[in-house]
Amino acid sequence: MEHSKPVSTPMLKESTNIEKSDEQSSKTFPFREAVAALMCLMIGTRPDLAYCVGVLSRHLDNPSTDDWVIVKRVLRYVTGSYNKGIVYKHKYKLGLFKCYSDADFRLCKA
After folding, report:
1. CA 55, CA 107: separation in Å to the nearest integer?
2. Where does this protein have compositionally biased stretches of type Basic and acidic residues (predicted)?
């Protein structure tokens, strides 16, 4: 992945609706390890990866080759955006502040 072509988005819109085929997963690729590494990166410094890690975590038991393609795309995104980050600017010294975020209810069928 060191010399891979970077991409501007971690996932494509179609990536969240992948239907599992009858194809059995191949255990030849380190899917679980890659998702774990992305999760460590997400928790420490990259909250922009949270949605991707959540989608990929749904397939940890039986990953398909399509899931592995998504992992590789996320890794290409990380490679191309290693110098980007979130910057919080303020005019006044306010001290500690609180941030809130909402969960992803788009895929909730209830």
Report:
1. 10
2. 16-25
